[in-house]
Amino acid sequence: MDWEALDQHWRGKRSQRSEPKACDETAEEIVDGGSDPALESEVRSAAIVGAGSVGSTIAIFLLQAGIYDEVYMIDTNQERVEGEVMDLSDASFVSDTRIRVGTYEDARRSSIVIITAGAKQRPNETREQLLQRNVHVLHSIAEELLPVSDSTIVLLVANPVDILTMLFQQISQIPKHRVIGSGTYLDSMRLRMALSQKFNIAPSAVNVSVVGMHGDLQIPVWSGAQVGGVPIQYFGRMSLEEMTELADSTRTKAYRIISAKGSTYYGIAACVAHLSQGITQDKHQIFQLSIWSDEFESYLSWPAIIGSKGIVKPMPLSLTDEERRMVSKATRQIKSSVQESLSGFSGHMNI
Q1: Pairing with 313, which of 122, 183, 191, 279 sits 20 to 30 Å away (CA)?
Q2: Apex CA 345: angle with CA 339 and CA 346, to 5°?
Q3: 10 Å Cβ neighbour count for 205?
Q4: Residue 112 forms beta bridges with which residues?
C-alpha cells in the first residue's frame, strides 16, 4: 500500500473542511464558565426551608430523582443544616443534582420553595393545636423570603397545612395559584393503598380523593371513587361500616405513626418528590393539594391540575349533600383559624 499517497489524500480532505469557529467559541465560553443569561435561566433549583426529619427526607428523595440541578437547604440551626448537607452530599453520586447550604437569596430565585420548618407534632396533639406555635415560625420565614421571583412556586408542608398555606398567601400576597400546600395528597394515597390491598388490585387502578382539610376534617369522596373506572359501590359492594372503618384508619394513621416513632416523613417526602417532578416537567397532572377555591372562598384540600406555573385549575367534583356539608365545615374552620391568626399579628408585619 502506498502510505504516502494515502496520507496526502486525507490531508486534502481535511483542508476542504471549514473551520467551526462559532462552535469553538461557544465551547470555550461554556468551559470557562461564561455567564450566558440563557444558560443561567435554565438552572432548575429547589430550596427547602427546614433541615429537620421532613426537610432532610425530602432532600434525599429529590437527590435520587435528579429533578433539579441544585437543592438548597436552609435552617436557623446552622450546625444542623451543615451536617445534613454533608451527610446528604455522600448520596449525591446517584444523580447530577448538587446539594448545598443555601440562603434566602437562593430561595428567592428558586423554581420552588418547600417550607417544612415548624414545631413537631406531639403525641395526641391535633394539627389545629400546632397552629399558634407554627404561625410564629411561618411569619418569620415570610419576612426573610420575600420578595420571590415571579416564577417561584411556594409549597407548604408544615401542619396544619391548609391553614398555614392560606395564612402564608395572605401574608406574602404571592398570587394564589403559586402558593400551594401538600394538602390531602398523602391522605388520598393512603386511602388508595388501603383499597388496593382490600381488593387485591394495583394501586394505580384505584381512583379516590380525600378533600376538605388535612387531618380530622378530611372527607373521602366515596361518591366519586372508582376501581378501574367502575364506581366503587358496584365494584366492591362495600358497606357503610367498611367505608367508615377505612376512612378512620386513613385519618388516624399519622397519629399512630407519631405515637410509635415520634414523627412522619417518608410518605410526605415521596409525595413532594412526585409533585415536584410533575411541576418541573409541566405534566399537568392532578394532585389533591391545598389550593384556593373561588367556590368556597377559601383554601382547602382539593384535586387540581398543576403545571410549571402553578395551579392550572381545580377539578370539578360532584359531591353528595353530606360531602358538601362536611367540606363547608372544613372551610369554615380554615377561614376562622386564619382570621384569628392574622388578627393576632395586627401591626407586626414588616413585609
Answers
A1: 191
A2: 90
A3: 16
A4: 46, 153
- Cell numbers for 149, please give them: 421571583
Q: Of 107, 137, 140, 101, which is closest to residue 119 (Cα–Cα)?
A: 137
Shortest CA distance to 251 belongs to which of 178, 200, 146, 326?
Answer: 326
Asked about 214 being catalytic, the answer comes back as yes
Contact 176, 169 (CB under 8 A): yes
Residue located via cell numbers 504516502: 4
| Active-site residue (options: 9, 139, 177, 214) | 214
Residues 6+ apart with CB under 8 A from 248: none
Answer yes or no: are the C-beta atoms of 55 and 49 closer than 8 Å.
Answer: yes
> pLDDT tens, 322-331?
999 999 999 9
DSSP lists the bridge partners of residue 307 as 310
Tell me: the pLDDT tens digits for 233-284? 888 888 889 999 999 999 999 999 999 998 899 999 999 999 999 999 999 9
pLDDT category at 152 given cuts 50, 70, 90 is very high
